[in-house]
From TrEMBL:
GO terms for biological process: proteolysis. It comes from Mycena chlorophos (Agaric fungus). This is Acid proteinase A. GO terms for molecular function: glutamic-type endopeptidase activity. It comes from the Eukaryota. PANTHER family: ASPERGILLOPEPSIN, PUTAITVE (AFU_ORTHOLOGUE AFUA_7G01200) (PTHR37536:SF1), PUTATIVE (AFU_ORTHOLOGUE AFUA_3G02970)-RELATED (PTHR37536). It holds the Pfam family Peptidase_A4.
Length: 273
């Protein structure tokens, strides 16, 4: 697989990650086809890292009486999270964007982003998720689809993803430490279904749609520039469908704001800034 520069084929099963067991099936237009497992990625998504608990209220002054939207800041997450009890499922659709190097990033810095949906991780350290990563490697963009259940590292799922592809991911908790992640290349009718058990106990108290500056080793990767991107989708909370319209928004702030989340109806919009 040509994503070799961004993936580590050799990973010894650590005590912690060996508890998390995934099994995958792949489908083309609904018919099962051979699934070849990709290597474990060297990237890892992390629970929300808040840089500030100071909550800013955004009031749309143009619409009298409109409810306020709460935005929190984070060093690694940008997007929207719905909180409460009990989330059993979340689905999100996005397009894999053409990413760029930010000014000041050297050609060797290989900037990247990931986009995903997941359950938990907003107010706890458990997290089950699935999504895509995009990275500039020697100037050209490479993309991959992955699943992750903390505390194990993410797994590449061998679903070819091209820049511009429309991706839909459904993450469903089937127990307190088990779940199903379905990743679909909507453009081509290809999907991968991963079932997982083990890992951190899920509290199911958040569901989120996130564009992340993820970690490689224990530091954040260079965060790529991206065109304005969106998530559409919904979550299931105590059996009822909820949209991101009531979500808390999350901006990435490092030395400056790098990504701002807003809502347009129930569509989450992410702007590079
Ligand atoms: C995710 O898929 C499951 C199984 O098909 C479905 O029951 C659930 O409603 C989906 N989740 C959402 C949020 O639509
Ligand atoms: C997903 O769809 C795109 C077409 O937009 C295609 O280039 C890519 O190879 C597809 N992936 C798979 C696994 O079929």
């Amino acid at each position: 697989m040509k994503f070799a520069a961004a993936l580590v084929a050799l990973i010894s099963a650590s005590l912690v990650s060996s508890e998390v067991v995934w099994s995958f099936k792949k489908y083309q237009d609904g018919v099962e086809v051979d699934f070849e497992e990709g290597p474990v990625t060297k990237f890892q998504s992390q629970a929300l890292q808040k840089v500030s608990d100071a909550r800013r209220k955004r009031i749309d002054s143009r619409i009298a009486g409109r409810s306020t939207q709460t935005t929190v800041t984070s060093s690694n997450w940008c997007g929207a999270a719905v909180t409460g009890t009990t989330f059993s499922s979340v689905v999100g659709t996005w397009t894999v964007p053409a990413i760029t190097r930010r000014s000041g990033q050297s050609s060797g810095s290989e900037p990247a982003i990931s986009q995903w949906v997941g359950i938990d991780g907003y107010s706890d350290d458990a997290l089950i998720q699935g999504g895509t990563i995009s990275q500039l490697v020697s100037g050209s963009q490479q993309n991959a689809a992955w699943t992750e259940m903390l505390p194990a590292a993410s797994k590449d799922v061998s679903l070819t993803v091209e820049t511009g592809d429309k991706i839909t991911v459904n993450v469903t908790a089937t127990g307190t430490s088990s779940g199903t992640v379905t990743l679909e290349n909507v453009t081509r009718g290809t999907s991968v279904v991963g079932k997982v058990s083990g890992g951190s106990r899920l509290s199911q108290n958040s569901a989120e749609w996130i564009l992340e500056d993820f970690e490689e080793g224990s530091s954040l990767v260079a965060f790529a520039g991206f065109p304005t991107s969106t998530f559409t989708g919904s979550a299931i909370k105590s059996g009822t469908s909820v949209s991101p319209a009531s979500a808390t928004l999350i901006d990435i702030v490092q030395s400056s704001t790098l990504c701002s989340a807003t809502l347009s109806g129930s569509t989450v919009e992410l702007s590079d800034s």
